[in-house]
């Protein structure tokens, strides 16, 4: 068959130049060897490739294969390598986040519908619920104490205005000068004592606010992290239990080993955060008792001294608890701030 093809190729008229002129392909030994090589082993791609035009020679349209190869093997700069590494790292992070979110969501719905089990520390859960209830009640104290400050401050300002009016009338009404004068002094004294009581209540509110919105809130943030870790731990625990109940082929054993590794990581995280919550709850309770003992004593002594009309005891209470009164008008904005 090869001999017949060779004989036909020797007498075939094909274009041999760019003008389309035809001629007879010469019977050349080299051409015969090339055709035999193509038929037996395929074309040699390391040689010159014919894109268009005649066979062999430096004719137009003939492109060396080495040139084609070189055009695709361009060097990668270090910046491109770094960017590619960052992209791969982000993609891996998103993948892990997606898997973790899926597992946790599945565990959450399983617990909600009673199909899955959850790890419970009864003693710690009781302490957490007690803290949340205590915080809610202390927030109510803050709301009521703030309202008391607002109302009492309005009363003090009214007493101040009333005392100024009595003083003015005592100067303009000679026949009632003494009466207006007595009442003016009384209102001014009440106003002064009222400002002292306001200072004590403001100090009380500030201290309780720090306890509730900083100390307790910090502990609750740790508790939130603990609850999330508990959900993740149960999710990976359930995943490991589900795999362990299935067939034990080679592929499953690999998945079980990986699940065991993830389970151990989340168990360690859960145990660490549980320990942190336990320690913070202990210190919070001690701090709460210390702070509230001082603040409740201040509130009681200041209020009792004010309504008893004991100015000396009220002043001693402020000194005892290191309460510094703001000068009158300090809460008002300055002239520059008003402009």
Automatic annotation (TrEMBL):
Alphabetical list of InterPro entries matching this protein: AH/BAR_dom_sf, AH_dom, Arfaptin_fam
Pfam families: Arfaptin (PF06456)
Disordered: annotated span: 1-28
Keywords: Coiled coil, Golgi apparatus, Membrane, Phosphoprotein
Compartment list: Golgi apparatus membrane; Golgi apparatus, trans-Golgi network
GO terms for biological process, alphabetical: intracellular protein transport; regulation of Arp2/3 complex-mediated actin nucleation
GO molecular function per UniProt: phosphatidylinositol-4-phosphate binding; protein domain specific binding
Domain named AH: residues: 119-319
GO annotation, cellular component aspect: cytosol; Golgi membrane; trans-Golgi network membrane
Coiled coil: 256-287
Name recorded for this polypeptide: ADP-ribosylation factor interacting protein 2a
């Amino acid at each position: 068959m090869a001999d017949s093809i060779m004989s036909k190729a020797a007498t075939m008229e094909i274009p041999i130049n760019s003008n389309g002129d035809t001629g007879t392909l010469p019977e050349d030994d080299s051409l015969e060897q090339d055709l035999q090589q193509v038929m037996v082993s395929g074309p040699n791609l390391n040689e010159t490739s014919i894109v268009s035009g005649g066979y062999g020679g430096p004719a137009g349209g003939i492109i060396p294969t080495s040139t084609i190869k070189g055009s695709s093997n361009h060097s990668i700069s270090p910046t491109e390598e770094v960017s590619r590494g960052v992209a791969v790292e982000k993609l891996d992070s998103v993948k892990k986040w997606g898997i973790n979110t899926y597992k946790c969501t599945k565990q959450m719905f399983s617990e909600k519908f009673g199909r899955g089990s959850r790890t419970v520390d009864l003693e710690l859960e009781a302490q957490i619920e007690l803290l949340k209830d205590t915080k809610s009640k202390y927030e109510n104290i803050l709301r009521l104490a703030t309202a008391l400050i607002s109302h009492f401050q309005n009363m003090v300002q009214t007493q101040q205005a009333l005392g100024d009016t009595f003083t003015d009338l005592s100067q303009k009404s000679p026949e009632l000068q003494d009466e207006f004068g007595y009442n003016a002094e009384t209102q001014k004294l009440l106003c002064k004592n009222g400002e002292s009581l306001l200072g004590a209540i403001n100090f009380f509110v500030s201290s309780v606010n720090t306890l509730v919105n900083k100390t307790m809130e910090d502990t609750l943030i740790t508790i939130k992290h603990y609850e999330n870790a508990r959900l993740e731990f149960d999710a990976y625990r359930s995943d490991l239990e589900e795999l362990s109940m299935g067939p034990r082929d080679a592929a499953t054993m690999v998945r079980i080993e990986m699940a065991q590794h993830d389970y151990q990581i989340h168990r360690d995280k859960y145990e660490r955060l549980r320990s942190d919550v336990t320690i913070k709850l202990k210190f919070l309770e001690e701090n709460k008792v210390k702070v509230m003992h001082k603040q409740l004593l201040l509130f009681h002594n200041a209020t009792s001294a004010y309504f008893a009309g004991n100015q000396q005891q009220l002043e001693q209470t402020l000194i005892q608890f290191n309460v510094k009164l703001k000068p009158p008008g300090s809460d008002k904005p300055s002239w520059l701030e008003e402009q």
